[in-house]
Amino acid sequence: MFLRLPMSLARFLNNGRLRILLLFLIVLLVLGICITYNNWPTDAELCFRDVTPAISKLEADEHIALEDVLLGHPKPRAGRSIFFHETSCHLFRKEERKQGKKKEYKLLQLTPRQACAIESAALHNPNFDIFVLFADPTYKVTKWRNGSLEQSPLIEAILGYNNVHLRSLNLWTYSEGTPIEAWFKDGQLFQSRYLFSHLSDFLRYLTLYRYGGLYLDMDVVVLRSMEDIPPNYTGAESHSSLAAGVMNFAAHGFGHEIAESCLRDFQQNFDGSDWGQNGPGVITRVAQKICGTQDISLMIEDSKRCLGFKVYSRGAFYAIPWRQWQDFFEPHKLETTMARAKDSYVIHVWNKHSSKLKIRYGTKSAYAQYAESNCPRALAASGEYF
To answer: What SUPFAM superfamilies has UniProt attached to this entry (predicted)?
Structure first.
């Protein structure tokens, strides 16, 4: 005996127009579900959402939130500021939000090597403002507890320099009014396989577009003043690629045009599955267009070719290539390493590879020698290991 369909359902299925309408409604429903899912903030995106309510008053056991760089004072001076970015985050998962949990503030922290980079920039460039921009809104700079001020010794060390300023930034408002605003708000960046690295790439070009000045990676040590170097420059990392760890663009004119070109290249060629595509890849491609060549040696040797954009040889900022990063930390390489970097403005210790290698205070290595001379306060505040 066959199952007989109700008369009304049988008539419906025999009506071609109604079947098409039903199919259309099902397609709309599926599309709506897909769009809602794709627009739902990812765990990584929630990392950088603002904490509410904002903390504004100072009371016992209350945190002091970092000022927003767009709102705080002093503001970056056009072309006269050095910028560092901190893009790690206090992960806040969708599941936690659904359960009603809230983000909590936590005491601002830096690693000894990050503090060293900041201090060395402040020490050698007293006429520049040093801005350290934190993308995670859950950081606080200090906390009062039982009438006393709590603060990391490393934070105290760098804030001993009057030209160091710690600020937060809101990724959404920070991108507003720039050529990359719509692309950023579309959310593609948060799908990246290397999110924190690519977020750092994104911010360095965006900051230089906003303010001009000098961008530095957090794993450098500045060895001498960079105040009098003419603007609009970067450095070669190899015979085939420029690097994005040290870049300077003027706030106006040609420098601002370079920064805008970098932002447009970033979004046009963004690839979340390629680590280097969106950092060194951007400045390399933009320089190739400016200089009219893909030959890095020609960029370095022929200053007129690049129309005033200076490409330094690797000795200026990357005297020790990343494959030899251990040379900074091996005592028997001390003399040869320092000889190779004797003319450098900056040394770059390749944190991606070296971060897990801790050195004991007093070790006779090139990095330890650089720290003693260029970031003595951070070194003293770091404890037994640096």
So the answer is: Nucleotide-diphospho-sugar transferases (SSF53448)
Count of Cβ atoms closer than 10 Å to residue 95 Cβ = 9
Q: Mean pLDDT over residues 306-332, rounded?
A: 96
Q: Contact at 8 Å (CB) between 244 and 280?
A: yes
Rounded mean pLDDT of the chain? 86
Quote the crossing angle between the two packed helices 253-268 and 280-291, to the nearest 10°.
120
Domains of the chain by range and CATH? 63-324 (3.90.550)
| Gyration radius of the chain's alpha carbons | 26
d(C-alpha 116, C-alpha 218), whole Å = 9
Distances in Å between the alpha carbon of 366 and those of 157, 160, 224?
22, 25, 16
Inter-CA distances, 101 with 42, 61, 92, 104, 170, Å: 16, 20, 9, 9, 21
Instruction: State the average pLDDT over residues 27-46.
Output: 54
Q: Residues of the chain with pLDDT > 90: what percent?
A: 66
Instruction: Report the C-alpha gap between 184 and 323 in whole angstroms.
Output: 33
CA angle at 193 for the pair 187 and 197, rounded to the nearest 5°: 85
Between CA 148 and CA 150 the distance in angstroms is 6
Residue with tokens 């709102």: 71
